[in-house]
Amino acid sequence: MNDKQETYDEVFSRIKGLIGEEDILDWVGIMATVACELHTAFSYYHWTGFYRVVQDDVLLVGPYQGSHGCLSIPFSRGVCGAAARTRSTQLVRDVNAIEDHIACSSTTQSEIVVPIITPEDRLIAVLDVDSDDLAAFDAVDQQYLEALCKKLGQLYASRHPSSDPVMP
Ligand code: SME
Asked: What's 140's domain CATH number?
């Protein structure tokens, strides 16, 4: 196991401990906690946060860490929109090679965006991580962040029947 994997394991254990003790599952608090713990654990994480599916084909910013993030992203635009549209992880080694990349910060060089989908196949959000380092993210980041987002989708579904309105 390498240092990155060990750090992910430690972060996930902390997140589980923080969230698991709560009787009331508040999604804003969960997203804020996840963004905070991830962002502070990895030096190459320069923007870490969520975009929520609040209405059809639009993502709205959720809790995040880092410089300001754009407030809304249509599914038709950006790396986040591509993750939402295709319901698949976008692992971008060089954002300058992506024509419709949305640069919330001019210093961003690489990015990973992972969709959060419930067991009922409902897209509820995407987790977006930006780095000022080129090719900062690799298969280990993708593996761990996809596992985290799968858990978040399961947790959301366990508290929000599919008849509920979209994520707060
Ligand atoms: N880079 C993202 C936009 C979100 S800001 O980076 C926080 C995109 O291209 O969708």
From this structure: 3.30.450.40
